[in-house]
Design brief:
alpha/beta, 14 helices, 4 domains
Length: about 325
């Protein structure tokens, strides 16, 4: 293929692999490298740019982390396409008021330093562009024992509205022959407080990148679980994707004195007979963000279940506020480094 015209500045404070990755991202997102394009072999691009093949390999891993390329063993690295960022997390009125006060204070301080309004506007604009550029090249790994819980990080961390996130199941990490290489390209690794000791043990050389988060059911989920009757008759159905999630639900219900024999769990499969599963149930617990209402035929089944007195509980997690602040502060520091 023709030259990609990748240039690097080895005197820059920006790591060389990030310089290479940034230029490749630009070529993919502007259409210069359309979906399906095979990127040069690592040693070929390394020879063209005058860097080590491992540096190019790390840049390719950044692109893979962002979902822009697929690295196929024995075949090469292929462009998938530009990935749109998730929608920003909505903010509350209280947070907005605090932000406005902070902006007003900053403006007042800059005026006292004799900056004009145009200069303030230009400086803020440039700094926002710099921060956004860093964030778009920021790679975060999240690790948990069940797929149902992995989405909570994207939903809650404001910075993740544009950072690139890749999810890992803990079992896959345990079985990897080279755990260190699996996470080498990531700037930060997030997991729950429960799994933090094990993950740092698996990643001794990268333990400083691993942050823990305390997670718990949302107040609404907790209230709905609390409202389940303790009487022995009602049966509770749990629809899940993993045995770990099933066991988590059982523990939460056990803490509320709900007898285990009242709980029946089923692993979701396309085409399953949901009517039969719900026949003797009074409650159905679903994983977070589970799109069962939109699945063919199942939406009407759940509506009928609710209309006949059944209760559908979406089991939603949240990162506790203290953990959220620690994680956001760590991301902010890394972006400013």
């Amino acid at each position: 293929m023709p030259s990609l015209n990748i240039t690097v500045d080895k005197s820059s404070a920006v790591p060389v692999y990030r310089q290479v990755a940034k230029q490749l991202v630009h070529r993919i997102t502007n259409g210069h490298l359309p979906s399906g394009t095979q990127l040069p072999r690592e040693r070929d691009l390394a020879a063209e740019t005058g860097v080590a093949a491992g540096t190019v390999g790390r840049a390719y891993e950044v692109l893979a982390c962002r979902g822009l390329v697929e690295m196929i063993k024995g075949r090469g690295t292929f462009v998938i396409g530009a990935m749109l960022p998730p929608a920003p997390t909505p903010t509350g009125a209280g947070r907005q008021a605090r932000a406005q006060a902070l902006v007003r204070s900053t403006i007042d301080g800059m005026v006292r330093l004799q900056f004009s309004f145009n200069e303030i506007r230009d400086l803020v604009h440039v700094m926002l562009l710099e921060r956004e550029d860093r964030l778009q090249n920021f790679c975060i790994a999240v690790v948990d024992c069940n797929p149902e819980a992995l989405g909570i990080y994207e939903k809650q961390l404001l910075y993740l509205s544009k950072a690139q996130v890749r999810k890992f199941l803990l079992d896959d990490v345990r079985q990897s022959p080279d755990v260190g290489a699996m996470f080498q390209a990531f700037d930060l690794i997030l997991t729950t407080a429960t799994h933090h000791p094990e993950l740092t043990g698996l990643l001794p050389a990268q333990r400083d990148k691993v942050l823990s988060a305390a997670v718990a059911p949302t107040p609404q989920t907790a209230a709905e679980l609390d409202a389940i009757p303790r009487a022995p008759d009602p049966k509770i159905g749990v629809l899940c994707l993993s045995a770990n999630f099933r066991d988590i639900i059982r523990r939460h219900l056990a803490a509320r004195q709900v007898a285990d024999e009242r709980i029946e769990a089923a692993f979701y499969q396309a085409g399953m007979d949901l009517n039969a599963f719900l026949r003797d149930k009074t409650h159905l617990i679903l994983p977070p963000d589970f799109p069962l209402f939109s699945q063919g035929g199942y939406g009407s089944t759940l509506v009928r279940f609710s209309e006949t007195g059944g209760r559908v509980i979406q089991f939603d997690y949240q990162i506790e506020r203290g953990s959220l602040l620690v994680i956001e502060e760590a991301i902010s520091k890394l972006l400013m480094a």
